[in-house]
TrEMBL record:
Keywords: Aminotransferase, Pyridoxal phosphate, Transferase. Its EC number is 2.6.1.13. Its cofactor is pyridoxal 5'-phosphate. The gene is rocD. One of its GO terms (molecular function) is ornithine aminotransferase activity. Belongs to the class-III pyridoxal-phosphate-dependent aminotransferase family. Pathway: Amino-acid biosynthesis; L-proline biosynthesis; L-glutamate 5-semialdehyde from L-ornithine: step 1/1. It comes from Streptomyces cylindrosporus. This is ornithine aminotransferase. The keyword Transmembrane helix does not apply. The keyword Mitochondrion does not apply.
Length: 410
């Protein structure tokens, strides 16, 4: 069989495309200077045909790799039949998506949305409504307790309870009703939760903060405290969930089931934005027609891809790979401590690596890795995050770690 002729995707070079963006694209990102034109599995290719190992996986939106065949097939099949109805009508894909997602997560009901931030916003609305209607909090007085160094998205309400001044500066006035306590501190949480508290909202592992893993017992403690004090436990698993840590959900490491689960990123298989609030019936049941919605939320294309994602997770293969290869990642990083790595935190195929500041900033290391064909992204100055597709092989992972060792040694 002859290989298909490769049609160039653009006539402009990477440098020309980067220059072309400058006057016409908002400058809200500082990307690495690589222009991706194609991708397959763990690998991406730039405009000039240079190949890179993707060790970021779209901030965990690409847990199954680029263009996973089962997901692409599900999307193609759906594209040929029905793409959008709006929720004004039913569509024939949504029931199965909700049934299987609820089953996978051990919860009852699904509120489909699109982006992660929308799922967080929706979770906040649901928790407040639950507080007024079920818990009996006086109208307008509901509070939500969150953790310092959180990252839950970029909307006005969400940045209202961020502790990152860059995310907040210039965007006020902010939404009231949030209390911030230190992460991984059950005593502080205990003191902050009172009769007005609708929910405790936390990331089971703080991704953007640098893959910060709480002490063993913290998630169990949050679960116990929320139950005892009569508020909801909302787990934002938008980055930590769907196989990344070696379990379907990061809360499973402590066998904890939250009242409300927020999912996004990998739920869309790297193809379409799909997010969801998944909760018990007595919680999500507070929503009635007209009180919340989204034109695209639960569209048939999203539901078809989301169902195919759930099917992949049902096999357990990706969770198993994350666990097994997580050992390779952890061992590889442990060997670099003192050789340019100041410290690291890892769970499954997810690691925050603190670079010795004497060697370079996270950004500089990211640029050096890029020149050697490995893509990562820095977070918080001197930390880089490793989150490859869960389809990565042991050889590819070993090669990425070898490249890290090489660039740290310069
Ligand atoms: C834990 C968490 N919540 C929410 C979000 C926001 O998701 P999105 O960028 O899709 O709005 C992110 C994105 O990084 C995240 O990591």
């Amino acid at each position: 069989m002859t290989a298909p002729t490769r049609v160039p995707v653009t006539t402009r070079s990477s440098a020309e495309l980067i220059r072309a963006e400058e006057p016409v694209l908002a400058h809200n990102y500082h990307p690495l200077p690589v222009v991706v034109a194609r991708a397959e599995g763990t690998w991406v290719e730039d405009v000039e045909g240079r190949r890179y190992l993707d060790m970021l996986a779209g901030y965990s939106a690409l847990n199954f790799g680029h263009r996973h065949p089962a997901l692409i097939e599900a999307a193609h099949r759906q594209l040929d039949r029905l793409t959008l109805t709006s929720r004004a009508f039913h569509n024939d894909k949504l029931a199965e998506f909700a049934e299987r997602l609820a089953e996978l997560t051990g919860l009852d009901m699904v509120l489909p949305m699109n982006t992660g931030a929308e799922a967080v916003e929706s979770g906040i609305k649901v928790a407040r409504k639950w507080a007024y209607e079920v818990k009996g909090v006086p109208d307008g007085e509901a509070t939500i307790v969150v953790a310092a160094e959180n990252f839950h998205g970029r909307t006005t309400t969400i940045v209202s309870f961020s502790t990152d001044e860059t995310a907040r500066q210039g965007f006020g006035p902010f939404t009231p009703g949030f209390r911030i306590v230190p992460y991984n501190d059950l005593a502080a949480l205990e003191a902050a939760v009172d009769e007005t508290t609708a929910a405790v909202l936390i990331e089971p592992i703080q991704g953007e903060a640098g893959v910060v893993i709480p002490d063993e017992g913290y998630l169990t403690g949050v679960r116990e405290l929320s139950r005892r004090k009569g508020c909801l436990f909302i787990a934002d698993e938008i980055q930590s969930g769907l196989g990344r840590t070696g379990r379907t959900l990061a809360v499973e490491h402590e066998s904890v089931v939250p009242d409300v689960l927020l999912l996004g990123k990998a739920l869309g298989g790297g193809i379409v934005p799909v997010s969801a609030v998944v909760a018990r019936r007595d919680v999500l049941g507070v929503l009635r027609p007209g009180e919340h919605g989204s034109t695209f939320g639960g569209n048939p294309l999203a539901a078809a891809v989301g169902t195919a994602v759930v099917e992949l997770l049902e096999t357990g293969e990706f969770q198993r790979r994350a666990t097994e290869l997580g050992v390779v990642l952890r061992d590889g990083l442990a060997a670099l401590v003192g050789k340019g790595v100041a410290g690291f935190r890892a769970r499954g195929l997810w690691a925050g690596v603190d670079i010795d500041p004497a060697i370079g900033t996270g950004r500089e290391i990211g640029e050096r890795l890029m020149r050697e064909g490995v893509l990562v992204k820095d977070t918080h100055g001197s930390t880089i995050r490793l989150a490859p597709p869960l389809t990565i092989t042991a050889e590819e992972l070993g090669s990425a770690l070898g490249t890290l060792e090489k660039v740290l040694g310069r």
